[in-house]
Amino acid sequence: MLRPLLIGATAVTALFAAGFSAAVATRGEPSAFDSVNRDRPLVALGSERQCERYAGLPAHWRDDPKAGMVRLRGGEFVMGSRSGYADERPAGDGRTRVGGFWIDQTDVTNAQFAVFVRATGYVSEAHRQGGAVVFHVPTPEEMNARDLAWWTWVKGASWDHPSGPGSNIEGRGNLPVTMITQNDALAYARWLGRDLPTEAEWEYAGKAGHDGADLDAAPRDASGKPTANYWQGAFPVLDSHEDGHAGLAPVGCYAANDFRLYDMIGNAWEWTKDPYTGPHQSHSNGDTAAVAPPARRHDTPMVIKGGSFLCSRDYCVRYRASSREQQEADLPASHIGFRTVLRDGA
């Protein structure tokens, strides 16, 4: 079952190879990172020790309406990639302008979402639908029996029961909240007077002032160590967790980008507010809707950004700021989370 997937992935790897040899963007202090941030108590993360000790709630959260956020000045950037998949190609010269906005430093955590639920009584769509799509490492028998054997619709799975009935998030307040639909994410954001980012806002923040071939490379440091949580090994049967994590990691275990944002690449995909348009090429990313109950109605495909712990060199190849994927707005899954924004003037 793996052979066709891996053969197709060889072509994908070759697709990016040409881009890797180009000169990388010049490093420096990014002009969009507003100086107001230097006077704010930013979340102190970026290492294994720090992320393990983090409780999942930024300092002054709920007292300061912008707690856990940084402000980015508006500006122009090149949206998309000429080295990636067909639906990532820039429109025209790709120059795109966004206004100024605040954005969460990390994905919204289980701890933050739990406070929201306690305060409002909100019932997530996974609870209302009676389940969610969950990843597991498939057996050889499962791989031979069906496509997308790593995805299963699990009855009773939800943000607070991530593996189904009997599981819980005790001791996992610092992990990204997942099994969240776009409506769930919007409900949380609006509770705080915020919104979800547009695709352009998300990519502007993810690229952090850079525009070079390194944006299309697998995220590794100068010594070759992974700098994000993505899959190393043969997907979906062997994750060598060279990056230190198999499955979801706590937020902020890796260094922030130059806008002081953590986990923009890997760990969990992130919802945007934009509908998905573009080529629907067969890149074997694994449509989670294929394992949802047959009677479930299909909702609008929305753009998700950033890749997840499931992206690897032989599957997905979306651990990049320009990457984009579609997800039905009301379909909860174990590899999708979100962060919020607050636009200037809102």
TrEMBL record:
Pfam families: FGE-sulfatase. It comes from the Bacteria. The keyword Signal applies. Keywords: Signal. Residues 67-341 form the Sulfatase-modifying factor enzyme-like domain. InterPro entries: CTDL_fold, Sulfatase_Mod_Factor_Kinase, SUMF_dom, SUMF_sf. Residues 1-25 form the signal peptide. One of its GO terms (molecular function) is formylglycine-generating oxidase activity. Transmembrane segments: none annotated. PANTHER family: FORMYLGLYCINE-GENERATING ENZYME, SULFATASE MODIFYING FACTOR 1, 2. This is Formylglycine-generating enzyme, required for sulfatase activity, contains SUMF1/FGE domain.
